[in-house]
Specification:
With 186 residues, the chain is an alpha+beta fold. The protein is built from 4 helices and 13 strands. The strands form 3 sheets. The chain has an 8-stranded antiparallel beta sheet. A 3-stranded mixed beta sheet has the order 6-5-13. A hairpin with a 2-residue loop joins strand 7 and strand 8. The longest helix is centred in the N-terminal third of the chain and has 26 residues.
Length: 186
C-alpha cells in the first residue's frame, strides 16, 4: 500500500510539473501574453511601423544574458496584437549561452546554414512558439526571435523577417530616470 501511495504522488507530480516546464514561452515573454493588445502596455514606446505591423521597445528596461546587457529588444504587434519579440545580442558569449540553454530545454535545434550569406540559423519549436537564433559570421550579428505562430502565420514571411534597416541602432527615448535591469529569459 505504501508503494502505491508513493507511486501515486510521483505520478501526480509528473502530470502537474511537466506542463510547467514549458509554460513560460507558451504564455508569452517579459510578462506580456501572446495575442494581447498593445493598449495593455503603457510602458512600451513605438519605434517603427510597416503596414499592419508595429514595433515597440520598453525604454525603461535593460535585459541581460551571459552577464552582459542586451543592446536591443523589440516587440512586434500585428493588428495591435502581440506576436513576436526580436532581440539583438551583443556578443558570441550571449549567443553561445542562449544556444546551450535552448538546446538543453527544448532539445537539438533544426539548423540551417547558408554559406553564401555566411549565416547559420538554429530553430526550436515549443507548442505555438517558434524560436530562432541567428548568427551572421560576416558581420558578427547575433539575433534571436520568438514568434507566436497563430498570429505570425498570417504575415508574409518576408515582412516578418525583415525588420526595418537601422532599427537596432535606434534607442527609444527614456520615459524617465527609472531604468531597470532584468534577465532576458528566466
Amino acid at each position: 500500500m505504501k508503494y502505491y501511495r508513493m507511486f501515486g504522488v510521483l505520478l501526480l507530480l509528473l502530470i502537474f510539473c511537466t506542463p510547467a516546464a514549458g509554460y513560460d514561452l507558451q504564455q508569452g515573454v517579459h510578462g506580456m501574453k501572446w495575442g494581447s493588445f498593445i493598449s495593455q502596455y503603457d510602458n512600451l514606446t513605438k519605434v517603427h511601423q510597416v503596414n499592419q505591423v508595429t514595433y515597440y521597445a520598453n525604454s525603461n528596461m535593460i535585459y541581460q544574458t551571459a552577464r552582459q546587457p542586451v543592446p536591443a529588444v523589440f516587440y512586434g504587434f500585428y493588428r495591435d496584437k502581440f506576436f513576436a519579440v526580436f532581440i539583438k545580442l551583443s556578443s558570441p558569449n550571449q549567443f553561445v549561452q542562449l544556444q546551450r540553454d535552448f538546446t538543453k530545454k527544448h532539445g537539438k535545434p533544426r539548423t540551417t546554414r547558408d554559406a553564401a550569406a555566411g549565416q547559420t540559423v538554429y530553430r526550436w519549436k515549443q507548442g505555438d512558439v517558434k524560436i530562432k537564433l541567428k548568427i551572421k559570421e560576416s558581420s558578427g550579428d547575433y539575433k534571436m526571435a520568438f514568434y507566436y505562430v497563430p498570429l505570425a502565420a498570417k504575415l508574409n514571411l518576408e515582412q516578418l523577417e525583415n525588420l526595418p534597416p537601422g532599427i537596432y541602432d535606434n534607442d527609444p527615448p527614456k520615459k524617465d530616470g527609472s531604468v531597470k535591469t532584468a534577465p532576458l529569459l528566466e
